[in-house]
Write a structure and sequence with these properties.
mainly alpha, Ferritin, 10 helices, 0% strand, globular
């Protein structure tokens, strides 16, 4: 029998604020004007766009499954505030899955199959873990990649419907990355206080190695889509470089914030933000 916390104290204010944001910021595919005409571009360009969107759709589907799997894990740990936020994260990923599936229907095209695009599916397998912080380290890579790709697609403005979808997705991804930082910070604060600095530094090194392992799966995705990225105007080398740079910096900032919190030092929230294109 699984025992859950009967009366949670809900005292983690930062996680609770993200939970409230997740509740208030909901939107749906019905908010998109799907009747807007497709731009007058070549058939081959839409073929290439569909191929580039394949890892986006598979990433959203995989995120839905993995987030849903972590909800009971946090329940077992009596981390109710985080558990509640993950329910909104799961809804976000379900919405993104629907949006991009409907967008493929708009294009009248299908995503690449596993046989034709193994890199995209193998990348998702690297993220899986039942340890929340290990999972969040892997998700840090996938969410940052999704954020960067959404920025590129929105700014390229290939289709007003796709630009509108990406603008909404960017707001959701920012919230997910905010939770990623807060949870990691809280976890490292606990490790520093309970196990000491040496153990915390060992765990930090473990997570950096895990980040690198997951990141190694990013380049093969874009290498398989070089022609398609060039066709639609996406700078794949920039995206890959930025995923590495930003995720490394975000992980370092979360660990540093946890250490400072354990020592009773305050860390201004604005100093923890790592904007895309910084």
């Amino acid at each position: 029998m699984n025992i859950y916390k009967v009366l949670p104290d809900l005292s983690n204010d930062r996680q609770m604020r993200l939970w409230y944001q997740g509740l208030r910021k909901q939107w749906s595919a019905e908010d998109i004007d799907w009747k807007k005409a497709l731009p007058n571009v070549s058939k081959s360009k839409f073929d290439d766009l569909a191929r580039v969107l394949t890892p986006v759709l598979t990433g959203e589907q995989s995120a839905l499954y993995s987030v849903s799997g972590l909800i009971p894990v946090l329940g077992h740990r009596s981390e109710v505030e985080g558990q509640m936020f993950l329910t909104t994260w799961a809804v976000d990923e379900a919405r993104h899955t629907e949006l991009f599936a409907r967008y493929f229907h708009r294009l009248e095209r299908e995503p690449l199959s596993i046989r034709k695009f193994p890199a995209g599916f193998l990348f998702q397998s690297r993220i899986i873990s039942k340890e929340p912080v290990e999972w969040l380290t892997g998700v840090l890579v996938s969410e940052t990649a999704a954020q960067l790709i959404s920025h590129e697609l929105r700014d390229l403005d290939l289709d007003p419907v796709l630009s509108e979808i990406c603008a909404g997705v960017l707001e959701d991804e920012a919230r997910h990355l905010g939770f990623n930082h807060v949870y990691m910070c809280d976890r490292f604060k606990d490790i520093y206080q309970k196990d000491g600095e040496e153990e915390a530094e060992k765990f930090a090194l473990h997570l950096e190695k895990r980040r690198q392992y997951v990141f190694e799966g990013v380049a093969p995705i874009f290498n398989a889509l070089t022609k398609e990225c060039e066709s639609i105007g996406m700078d794949q080398e920039k995206v890959v470089h930025e995923v590495d740079r930003i995720t490394k910096l975000r992980l370092e900032k979360a660990i540093l914030a946890g250490r400072k919190a354990a020592l009773g030092e305050s860390v201004p929230e604005e100093s923890l933000i790592v904007p895309v294109g910084e």
